[in-house]
Write a structure and sequence with these properties.
The chain is of the alpha/beta class and 194 residues long. The protein contains 6 helices and 9 strands.
Length: 194
C-alpha cells in the first residue's frame, strides 16, 4: 500500500492515550494530512487557539480539561473549526452533551481508523462548500471573507482565529479598498464578486 499525496489540510489530534494518538496520527498522515498532537486538554486548547486548523479530533476524557469543555471554550470564543469527538462514552446523554456543546461528529471507541479518515474527508468536503459560499469580495485574485475574518490570494488562506475589534476593522478597511479598486480599475481585470 502506498502513501497518498500530501494535502494542505491541518488536523489537531488531542488524545491522552499514546497508542491511540499514535494510530490516529499515523492514519491521518498516511492519508496525506498534516497532523499535530497534544496529550492534555490545556495543551490542546492552547494549540487550537493559536493556529489555524481544518479539523480537531478530540478525546473526551482528557486530563486537565475534558474534550467537551475544550470544544465549548472554542465555540464561546467564536471558533467554528469542525470537531470530531473520540470517546468510550456511548450513553445518549454524552452524545447530547458533545453535539450541543459544539461537536460536529462523534466516534465511539473502539473505532475503525478507516471510518475516522472517511469522516474527516467528508467533513472537509462540506467545509469547502461553505467557504466558497461565504466568499464576499474577490479582486485580482485576492479574496476577502469578512464573515470568517479571512483574506487570501489563490489557494492559500490567512485567518484570525479570534476575531477582535482590530481584526474586524482591518477586514472592513481591506473590503473598502478592494471595492474601490473594483469600481475604479479599467484594464486590469478587477471585479467585485458578491
Amino acid at each position: 500500500m502506498r502513501q497518498l499525496r500530501s494535502r494542505e489540510e491541518r488536523i489537531l489530534v488531542v488524545e491522552d492515550e499514546e497508542p491511540i494518538r499514535d494510530l490516529v496520527t499515523t492514519a491521518l498522515r498516511f492519508t496525506g494530512f498534516t497532523v499535530e498532537t497534544a496529550a492534555t486538554g490545556p495543551e490542546g486548547l492552547a494549540l487550537a487557539r493559536n493556529d489555524a486548523w481544518q479539523i480537531l479530533v478530540l478525546d473526551v476524557n482528557l486530563p486537565g480539561l475534558d474534550g467537551f469543555s475544550l470544544c465549548r471554550k472554542l465555540r464561546e470564543a467564536g471558533d467554528e473549526v469542525p470537531v470530531i469527538f473520540l470517546t468510550a462514552r456511548d450513553d445518549p446523554a454524552d452524545l447530547r452533551e458533545g453535539f450541543t456543546g459544539g461537536g460536529d461528529d462523534y466516534l465511539t471507541k473502539p473505532f475503525s481508523l478507516e471510518e475516522l479518515v472517511l469522516r474527516v474527508e467528508a467533513m472537509l468536503r462540506r467545509g469547502r462548500g461553505q467557504a466558497n459560499e461565504r466568499a464576499g469580495v474577490a479582486v485580482g485574485g485576492v479574496v476577502l471573507d469578512d464573515d470568517a475574518h479571512r483574506v487570501w490570494r489563490g489557494i492559500g488562506r490567512s485567518s484570525s482565529r479570534r476575531p477582535s475589534t482590530a481584526c474586524c476593522a482591518t477586514c472592513n478597511a481591506v473590503r473598502k479598498t478592494l471595492m474601490t479598486l473594483a469600481c475604479t480599475s479599467d484594464d486590469e481585470g478587477w471585479q467585485a464578486a458578491a
